[in-house]
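JOB MANIFEST
job_type = single_chain_structure
chain_count = 1
residues = 110
[input]
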Amino acid sequence: MNHAPTGRHSRIPNVIDWGLLPYPEAHERQLAALADRLAGRIDDTIFLVEHPHVYTCGRGTDVSGLKPSDGIAIVPVERGGGITYHGPGQLVAYPIMDVRAQTGDLHRFL
């Protein structure tokens, strides 16, 4: 398979390790990074993080049957999709990138 550049932006993004960080704090940092990226104050960046036990629930998720147990937080977020679990030992990557410049297409990027 040919992986030659297609003329689009091919710079490697910055990678920043946030270590172990509660989800709400990481979410706030993501929103701040998004604002900085949109304003051109930072380049494409991927943030790596590990969260304490947490369930995140996208818009439209029915959480009526989900009960907090063993101190696991339930956090509603503005993304689509359903319930996602994050926890210790799981590496999570949050890309804050100009996808149009990378591939021109979100699905191709993913």
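[summary]
The CA atoms of residues 59 and 110 lie 20 Å apart.
The chain has a mean pLDDT of 83.
exit_status = 0
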